[in-house]
Hints:
By secondary structure, the protein is mainly β. The protein contains five helices and 20 strands. The strands form four sheets. Strands 6-7-4-11-14-9 form a six-stranded antiparallel sheet, with no helix packed on it. Strands 12-13-10-17-20-15 form a six-stranded antiparallel sheet. The N and C termini lie far apart (78 Å).
Amino acid sequence: MSYQQDPYQQQGYGQGQQYPATPQYGQQQQHYPPPPGQGSHPQQSAYPPQHQQSYGQPSYAQPPSSGPTHQSAVPEASDSGSYRNLKWTVKHRNTNSTLNVQLGQGGIIKSKAGAMIHMSPTVTLQGKMKVSMKKLFTGGSMTESSYTGPGLVALAPTLFGDIVTLQIQQGSTWNVGKDAYLASTNDVVKDTKSQGLGKAFFSGEDLFIYNFTGEGVAWLTSFGAIETKHLGQGEQHVVDNGHLVAWNCKYAIEKAGGSGMSSMKSGEGLICRFTGPGTVYIQTRNLDDFADWVRSKAGGQS
């Protein structure tokens, strides 16, 4: 039997040209003339030999590879931007988020104490102890770190979760959960605000929350991922208590199911009904529920 070269390789069919249908096993191959203008000279393939497919051969002729298979990694979701003389990037959002801030000369950011992972030796770190009667009663963080550039600062939250960038403009006010604050630029004013006993108890938040004003950028953290809900004028949305990160619209407290008995049966307890215009940042995990789960597991050990 004489060996016959593959007609498609011989006739120089290249990348981007349509190959004739592959003949089935046992069928005779047809010979096709070369495309016009190419003559009989074969065309070099643009792909290396290991990536070339041999057309005209039965599929079973190539045994499966016994080596490891390589799959493309999921692209890393990131958030980056700039403000005045600093640039930031939120990295590792597919796993555990970190905040990297590149400070220019004299650039300043503030963060909650203990958030720093690493930094350039050119960055000046200062810790501030803010002692006041208001802080003592609110239970807010009494220490704060400030970083002055130039150099890189990397920050991360305590819990597993995401980091969201909050743009704060002059005249706007944001309500932020006490545990959601990670860092902010120097011109953001962070103050504590009383919710009142009713809203504090029913919303699942603390009696005091942060009130953000001024102008700049703040970075908030969540337990789990963060979902964003933008509400139009008069539009409403309901959020389960314990899942709030930040909001800048009106809200009211309601019982889930409309009555005490149905609330107990549903297991949802109390909910927050937000009314637009405004935005609500929601975390996908409930820290109180997780703490209860950990206690239940720890209590079951001998």
